[in-house]
Amino acid sequence: MEASAHDILLVGGGGAGLRAAIAAAEVNPKLSIAVISKVYPMRSHTVSAEGGAAGVAKPDDSLDEHAYDTISGGDWLSDQDAVEAFVREAPLELLQLERWGCPWNREPDGHIAVRAFGGMKKKRTWFAADKTGFHMLHTLFQTSLKFDPITRYDEWFVTRLLVDEGRVQGVVAIQLMSGKIQAIMAKAVILCTGGCGRVFPFTTNAAIKNGDGMALALRAGAPLKDMDFVQYHPTGLPFTGILITEAARAEGGYMLNKDGYRYLQDYNLGKPEPTPVLRSMELGPRDRLSQAFVKEFQKGRTIETPHGHVVHLDLRHLGEKLINARLPFVRELCLKYQNIDPVKELVPVRPVVHYMMGGVSTDINGATPLAGLFAAGEVACVSINGANRLGSNSLPECLVFGARAGKAAAEFSSLQKPANGAVLAQALDEETRLGSRFLNKTGGKERIATIRTEMQTTLEDSAGIYRDGAALIDGSAKLNELQERYKDINLDDRSRTFNTELESALELGYMLDVAESIVQSALHRKESRGAHQRTDYPARDDERYLAHSLIYRDAEGTSRVEYLPVRITRWPPGERVYGQQSSEQGHAKTP
Amino acid sequence: MPTRNLESTKAAPNYTPFHPRWYRPHVSVYWWLGEWHYLKFILRELSSVFVGVVVIEALMLIQALRDGPEAYAHFLQGMQNPLVLVLNIISFFFVVFHTITWFNLAPSAMPVRLRGKRVPDVLVAAPSYVAWIVVSAFVSWLILQ
Amino acid sequence: MADKITLEIARYSPERDDKPHYESYEVPVYKEWVVLDALNHIKDTVDGSLTYRWSCRMGICGSCGMMVNGEPKLTCATFLSSYARDGKKIRLEPLRYFPVVRDLVTELNDFLSKLKKVKPWLIRKDEPPLSQGEFLQTPGQVDRYKQFSMCINCTLCYAACPVVGLEPIFVGPAALALAQRYNLDSRDQGAQERTAMLAHPDGIWGCTFVGECTRVCPKHVDPAGAIQQYKLAAVVSWLKSFVLPRGQDK
């Protein structure tokens, strides 16, 4: 078996992965840094982020306010020391990106422009038209090209982490183009594989978001944190799940039910004003807006379409000129994929799964409890997003924690001996497993797509916006059944050259593991907080659950859930309020 | 040992295990005939030949004028030859085609910016057309006097 | 019940074939379905060995480019209904002028090395510390290069450009447009460094302004315009090198 070796290995080449690679290369240009990604880096899902990246930039704003907005938005489940570090480093990271060429929108005098965003009380969201993630990713990718220490393994699919002597020593991966299976050894491995939205049926996430890194970590013995918290974005196109950015609401869009009524005023989100008010009505936090949709649906006030129930997003009053200047991509998306012109028509939207607050448990420097394993970006949970993430916090999260993990991994790897050859035996086992379970297996009766669809339906039914114990238990049982049926999968494609069916089968395996961890974590948390809402436990319970859930899986596949107290520094838990009350609340709480 | 799947044991010419050789489609010499856009491009390039023809004729005209009334008459006679007439008609259409495509493409190469925004290509090309029409009208008036 | 449409898809596996052949599949036509949805339907329910790239399903990742009835297109942005309406079949082939790895998947490493060749990053002679804040750049200055920064690297332009087909060593539209994006960025100081490398027969002078790249670009980047502008700038800079032999800024 072929093997190569590096000092640091990044699994995933998106915003967090590329930032970490660059950070490590800048710390020590003599390091050998490898970025392995199952797609070319510019295809990573970071590319589709639209709205913006938050960082305190203007004199009327302060780090404490950004921290408070993040912590209260997270329903006090965020680790406050991590949030303090995050808000401090975010503007520096965004500035560094500007220095690398990112085309941020500007004010007439040439300074960076910022805009309002849901959940933020001050304007602090940096943006590049409405394609912020695209510009950030391409800037990072193009900048990474100038660093010689960085080697890329493009279109290599990681199937397993290699662990020996209690530390991670590399990965096993398939080169998609040739089908070659190889061990790639490293002194430190950083997971940057993104979230797991494809576990649900309606999601903004691309096909590649299958929770790869989360499953890899879980299988290697590292815990996942806060998997109960799944963020729905309140405005996604039905059928495709394509995201209609929050910015459409920040620029002044209204959300209407079937009577043309701005229904959010019924849900403690303030009073309807003609222009947007920060943290109120349509600019309230995403989880509250998604929950309002479910309630409207239960009251029979949503609109029925061939692709399920929707509400309407009304942008018509903004005018063509503003829409073309500030929301050109929104208009393009609606026209190209749903044949609707937001200048003239109402846009049908529904809540879609968008982001995973939970992930591989890490500390403030991206290190997991498993030595040699780090994680950053959506795949990780530090946690700064707590029970609910604020819009425009996840792009700077990739940068801040990507940089931190890169530097921490660089330091860690300088203290390690090279990976020992004993793990090659594990790599050979993995190759045998792939052959016997998939490529050479005969007689299987299940199709990948069938199991995948059933898994997605199960998750939406049992672990959707509103959950209850009975549905979660049913969901867990169904997932067990699907795990059994997964063993009986039959592949049509037995070739070695670019076998995407094998890739899908392996991704399905990852998704089933991640789905299980979501359902189990949700079952154990008997309270409602942020994005996790239980109809059987509707109140927030700070006494018992002001803590992160940690889920471990042992070698037999049994899960166990533990709790880790949240780290509070300066902001004791308060009420999450929006609308009129929030401005008073904010002043009262900030020391 | 790497396990082999049953299909790869057949030795196809492009495949060596783990070092597949890709299929490289051959680009035909007649690549430009398959598509209208490509054909239009080749015709545009070809038009420069006819522009050359017109230029040469113009030079011949000037030479004839210089050499006196006999040479000029001889030139005019040559121009009335049916083959030359056909050539000139074809050249005329190609020169017009050449001019129109040139005017339309020039703004891409030289974007004009006014007050921080780009002036639409149509507006940048328009003056060229106007100038062309004006000059042609003037020259026609001169000749037909 | 929905209408149906036939897809004729190029299939090729180097382990079995020495050249591609076509296989036909019938798929239902729904108003919202794009060609990519049809491909997923076939892969999920009919033939799992059908191989193609895709990811975002919204025209921003650039993975899903293919030849659809001889035209390079993003399959996530091409509606089935527009072909069904005319009663046509849909013929799918991998992007032209690239080596074919498998079915509809092309080899992209050569393209990536061309991207790297043009030095597509901000080149500075000086690096002021971050504490000095951002480089100032007015909206007008951003506007100068914004269009060329929109490239999603989908390589449809390479599939449209006959020069790429005839001279594989030609750097190509997307890479050249990206170079121009940095040249026009007011914060960049590397135009000379790039021109030295690109003003040669495999670079901008390989382009004959066919203009197909601009026509097929799904993001309206106008790479042909970028290249012609670059040509003009390169000539001007070359002339200047005679008039001002001691060199000029940028």
Write the layout of secondary structure elements.
The complex is a heterotrimer of chains A (591), B (145) and C (250).
Chain A: E1 3-11, H1 15-27, E2 33-37, E3 53-54, H2 63-73, H3 80-99, E4 114-115, E5 125-126, H4 132-144, E6 150-154, E7 156-164, E8 167-175, E9 180-191, H5 212-220, E10 224-225, E11 230-236, H6 247-250, E12 254-256, H7 286-298, E13 303-305, E14 308-314, H8 320-326, H9 328-338, E15 347-356, E16 359-361, E17 373-375, E18 380-381, H10 394-414, H11 423-439, H12 448-462, E19 466-467, H13 469-486, H14 500-524, E20 533-534, H15 542-545, E21 547-553, E22 559-565, H16 580-589
Parallel strand pairs in A: 1-2, 1-9, 2-6, 9-17, 16-18, 19-20
Antiparallel strand pairs in A: 3-5, 4-5, 7-8, 8-9, 10-16, 10-21, 11-15, 12-14, 13-14, 14-15, 21-22
Chain B: H1 36-67, H2 69-79, H3 82-109, E1 113-114, E2 117-118, H4 121-144
Antiparallel strand pairs in B: 1-2
Chain C: E1 3-11, E2 21-29, H1 35-45, E3 65-68, E4 71-74, H2 81-84, E5 90-93, E6 100-102, E7 105-106, H3 109-117, H4 139-146, H5 156-160, H6 162-166, H7 173-183, H8 191-198, H9 212-216, H10 223-243
Parallel strand pairs in C: 1-5
Antiparallel strand pairs in C: 1-2, 3-4, 3-5, 6-7
Helix pairs in contact in C: 3-7, 7-10
Quick recap:
Chain B is mainly alpha-helical and 145 residues long. Chain B contains four helices and two strands. Chain B has helices spanning 36-67, 69-79, 82-109, 121-144, and strands at 113-114, 117-118.
Description:
The complex is a heterotrimer of chains A (591), B (145) and C (250). With 591 residues, chain A is an alpha/beta fold. Among the domains of chain A are: 236-350, Flavocytochrome C3, Chain A, domain 1, CATH 3.90.700.10; 443-564, Methane Monooxygenase Hydroxylase, Chain G, domain 1, CATH 1.20.58.100. Chain A has helices at residues 15-27, 63-73, 80-99, 132-144, 212-220, 247-250, 286-298, 320-326, 328-338, 394-414, 423-439, 448-462, 469-486, 500-524, 542-545, 580-589; strands at 3-11, 33-37, 53-54, 114-115, 125-126, 150-154, 156-164, 167-175, 180-191, 224-225, 230-236, 254-256, 303-305, 308-314, 347-356, 359-361, 373-375, 380-381, 466-467, 533-534, 547-553, 559-565. In chain A, the strands form five sheets. In chain A, strands 1, 2, 6, 7, 8, 9 and 17 form a seven-stranded mixed sheet that branches. A five-stranded mixed sheet of chain A has the order 18-16-10-21-22. In chain A, strands 11, 12, 13, 14 and 15 form a five-stranded antiparallel sheet that branches. The longest helix of chain A has 25 residues, at 500-524. Chain A is globular. With 145 residues, chain B is mainly alpha-helical. Chain B has a domain at 46-110 and 119-132: Fumarate reductase/succinate dehydrogenase, transmembrane subunit (3 helical TM bundles of succinate and fumarate reductases). A two-stranded antiparallel ribbon of chain B has the order 1-2. Chain C has two domains: 3-106, Ubiquitin-like (UB roll); 109-243, Fumarate Reductase Iron-sulfur Protein, Chain B, domain 2 (Orthogonal Bundle). Chain C is elongated. The relative contact order of chain C is 0.12. The model of chain C has no long low-confidence stretch (mean pLDDT 92). The chains are: A alpha/beta (591), B mainly alpha (145), C alpha+beta (250). Chains A and C meet through helix 3, helix 4 and helix 9 of A and helix 1, helix 3 and helix 4 of C.
